[in-house]
Amino acid sequence: MVAVKTLKDGRESREILLAFARSIKERDLVTYEHSRRVAVYAYRLASKLGWEHGQARDLALAALVHDLGKTWIANEILHKSAALSAEERRKMQRHPVIGARILIGCDVDPFYVETVLYHHERWDGQGYPSGLRGEAIPLSARILTVADVYDVLTSQRPYKEPFSSEMARERIGRDAGTSFDPTVVAAFVELLDTTPNFLLPCQPADLDQLAEITLLQLP
Ligand SMILES: [Fe+2]
To answer: 202 CA distance to ligand 1 centroid (A)?
Structure first.
C-alpha cells in the first residue's frame, strides 16, 4: 500500500512552529526576540484589520518563524556589522525560501509556508524571492512585512540607532504603495495613533510579562 502524506492538523502545525521558534532561540537570540515582537505587532495589526483571534494567532505563529531560514545562513553573514557584499546579500535573501522549504518538509498548513515565503515581497513587485506584486502577495505576508519593518526600524542594530515609533511611522507611511500595501499601512498608522505605548520593550523579561504573549502561548 502506498503511504499518503497528509498535512498536519492545526494543533500539530502549531506545535511544530513553536518547536522551530525554540530552535531559533538557541541559534540566534537577536532574531528570536525580533520575531517575538513582530509576532505581537502582526497579531495586533491583523486584529485591527478584522481578523478573528484564531487567524491572527496563526499569523503570529508564522511571524515567530518568519526568519527560520536564517538559521542556515553562515555566522559571518548573519552577524556581519558592515554592509553585505552582493554575493552575501544574495545568500541572505535565500532565507525566505529556505524557511518555507523546511516548513513544507514538515507538512504544516500552507498558510504558514506562504506567509514565510513571501514576507520580503513588495507591493510594487520589487521584493524577493518571487517579485510578486500587489494583491498577488498573500495578505498575511503583506501584514507581516509591515510588522517586520516596524520592528527593524525601531530596534538597535550594529549599523544603526533605533528609530522612535514616530519616525518609524513616518517611514512606513512614506513607503505605502511602493514597499507596502496602502490599506495595511493605513490600518497600522491608525493603530499606532490610537494605542499608547505600542512599541514593545526590547528586554525579553519585560516581553514575557505581556498578556499578549501568554494569549499567543509563545515560548
Ligand atoms: Fe526576513
So the answer is: 18
- 94 Cβ neighbours under 8 A, 6+ residues apart: 69, 73, 129
- The percent of residues above 70 in pLDDT, for the chain, comes to 89
Burial of 44 (0-12, 13-18, 19+ CB in 10 A): buried
**How large is the greatest C-alpha to C-alpha distance in the chain, in angstroms?**
61
Active site residues: 70
Whole-angstrom Cα Rg for the chain: 17
Q: Which three cell numbers mark 162?
A: 533605533
Look at residue 219 in the predicted model and tell me its pLDDT.
Answer: 44
Rounded to whole angstroms, the Cα distance separating 122 from 109 reads 23
- What domains lie within the chain, and their CATH numbers? 10-216 (1.10.3210.10)
